Amino acid sequence: MLSARTVLVFARLAVWEASRRRLVLAVAVLTLIVIAATAWGFSKLGDPTLDRGHPLSETELRLVTSQLLIVIAFLFAAVLALMAAVVGAPSISGELESGLALALLARPVRRAEMVLGKWLGLGALLVAYALVAGVLELIVVDLITGYVPPHPIQLIAYIAGVGLILLTLTLLLSTRLASMTAGIVPLVCYFMAWIGGIIGGAGQALGNATLTAVGTVTNLLLPTDGLWRGAVYAMEPAAFIAGLQEAGPAAAASPFSAAAPPAPAFLAWTVIWFLAMLGLTLWSLHVREV
User: Fold this and answer.
1) Does 54 map to a domain?
2) From its phi and psi, is residue 22 left (phi > 0), alpha (psi between -120 and 50) or beta?
3) Which end of the chain is less enclosed by CB atoms within 10 A, N or C?
């Protein structure tokens, strides 16, 4: 039987290790700088001197704000993906390479407890970052422009999901590859999945079944782009979504717009993907010689 207490111990150690490297502090400072910079930028939207001599109307302001917020959210999603790779890559491979894992696992500690503990601790760290950064940014945007995305909870959940997917993949690779390789590969896969989503969207717009299939396959292999599209949908005003739906398949070509939320079947597949990758991680470390 797995010990919940041991899992929590490994979770606390994973968070402490990430904090010891000052990664959390560095990301927090940079995030605050980005939020402050975006606050200044949004404050200039109502400046008549920047709007051809007249201020933006309320509808125009909501539309421009929503589109700028999508770009900012993409930045936060990329930072979250980078964090997942940086904190996840050395969490297992580093201990295997240094021999520390041998000392830990020589005691009555199961390998599965170590993996689950690290996933839980680092996952909680990523979710906390997505929650705090997302809430702060939305508060700033609301105070300055009065705009609040239609689905803020779903927005943060989808962004956090992107980080958790990359963390899970990184931990799997960390059981077999060196730390640097285990960190670089998931980031490359993340951007390849994003590009695959663009190709799939272009295929829908052009009616090209081959390109559409490329997007579908990449989304199944790594569901990050599908979750990103869900985050985009959560930020768009209803009027903008209606315009996308009227545009038809052509709207799918842009990675910064979404005419519909993720399908329930895709969300179910994402859960299956999580469980499968986590199971592979447990199996990979179980059969590896330490």
Assistant:
1) no
2) left
3) N
What's the rounded Cα separation, in Å, for the pair 200 and 223? 13
Q: First and final CA of the chain: distance in angstroms? A: 21
Structural domain includes residue 159: yes
Q: What are the backbone dihedrals phi and psi of residue 249, each rounded to the nearest 5 degrees, phi first?
A: -60, -25
In a domain, 52, yes or no: no
Domain assignment of residue 260, yes or no: yes
pTM (2 decimals)? Answer: 0.91
Domains in the chain: how many in total?
1
The distance of Cα 277 from the centroid of its chain, to the nearest Å, equals 16
| Residue numbers of the domain that contains 226 | 4-43+59-287
Can you list the pairs that 53-60 forms with residues at least 24 positions away whose Cβ atoms lie under 8 Å? 59/239
Greatest C-alpha distance within the chain: 72
Sign of CA dihedral 58, 62, 68, 73: positive
CA–CA dist 176, 174 (Å, integer): 5
**The pair of three-digit structure tokens given for residue 158, joined into one six-digit string:** 């989808």
**What torsion, rounded to 10 degrees, do the Cα atoms 74, 75, 76, 78 define?**
90
The CB density around residue 108, as the number of other CB atoms within 10 Å, is 8
CA distance 130 to 158: 10
Helix axes 58-98, 4-20, angle to 10 degrees: 110
> What does each of the 290 residues of the chain score in pLDDT, given as a tens digit?
778 888 998 899 888 888 777 777 888 898 999 999 999 988 877 655 554 556 667 777 788 888 899 999 999 999 999 999 999 998 888 887 777 766 766 667 788 888 999 999 999 999 999 999 999 999 999 999 888 999 999 999 999 999 999 999 999 999 999 989 999 999 999 999 999 999 998 898 888 999 999 999 999 999 999 999 999 999 998 888 888 888 777 777 788 888 889 999 999 999 999 999 999 999 999 888 76
